[in-house]
Design brief:
Helix content: 40-55%
Oligomer: single chain
Radius of gyration: 30 Å
Number of domains: 2
CATH superfamily of the largest domain: Glycoside hydrolase/deacetylase
CATH topology of the largest domain: TIM Barrel
Mean pLDDT: 87
Largest sheet: 6 strands, parallel
Low-confidence stretches: 28-50
Distance between the termini: 113 Å
Number of helices: 9
Bound molecules: zinc ion
Structural class: alpha/beta
Length: 281
Amino acid sequence: MKINKSFILWQLPLILIITSVSIFAYSLLSNRYRVEAIGQGNKQDVQAAKPKPKPQQNISFSVPTKFASSTLYQTELKKGEKYIALTFDDGPWGNTTDQILNILRKNNIKATFFMIGENVKTYPQQAKNVIADGNVIGNHTWHHWYRSMSPQLAASEIENTANIIYQTTGAKTSLFRPPGGILTNGVATYARNEKDAIVMWSDDSEDWRRPSTSTLVKRVVKQATPGGIILMHDGGGNRSNTVAALPQIINNLRQQGYKFVTIPQLLQIQNQEQVAITAKK
Ligand SMILES: [Zn+2]
C-alpha cells in the first residue's frame, strides 16, 4: 500500500494524538477505579476480621403462660431437687462479660443476663457473645433509672431496650428485671401489662458493694436454696471481685448437689411439676 503525503502530514499525527489522549484518559480512570477497588477490598477485609453477623435468628426467651405478668423471687421445686439460676445484671460490659462467659463455658453452665439498653449499644459484641454461648437475655431498661416514670417513659425505657437486644442478637425476651428491684415507679407496671415475667431474686450477692472474694462466696452460698435465683453483676462498674468469686461459688454449690439452669428452664421445671402434681389429684 502506498502511503500518500497528506496521510503522513495530517492524519498520522491526528491518530497519534487521539491514541495518546485515550491512553492517558484510560490510565486516569483505571487508576481511580483501582483505588476504589482497594478501598472496597479493605472494607471487606475489616468485615471478614470480625465474626460475621449471624443470620437473623428468631430466638425467643418466653415463659410459661402462668408466669406472664407475675413477679418471681424464686421457684418451688419438688423436694430433693436442687436447681438454681445464676443471673447477671447491668451488662454487657467491657471485659467482665467475656470473663464471666469464659467461666460459665468452662463449667458448662448457662445463665441469664439482664441487659441495659445503652450498654448493649456500647458493647454489642459482648451481647452477641452471651447469645452465642447459649445463655439467656432479659430486659433491664435503657438507662437503669430509679425515678418515677410515666407510662410513655416506661414504654421507651423497655421497648428501646427490647429493640436493641433484638437488632444486636436476634433475641426477643419476656423476662424483665426492674433496676434496683423497684416495683412501684411505673416501669414494672408497664412490663407486667406487656405480659413479661418480673424476675426478682432470692440470693443477693451484693457484689456491687465490692466485698472481698471470700465474703462474696460465703454470702451467695449461705443464701442458696433449691429453686433460688442468684443476683450478681457483670456490668455497671469494676466487677473483678465477682469474676474472682464465681468459680468458687460454682464449685461450692455443685458440691452441695446444685444444678445450674436459666430462668426460662427454672420456670419450665416448676411449670411441669405443678402440672404433674395437679394431674395426680
Ligand atoms: Zn441493675
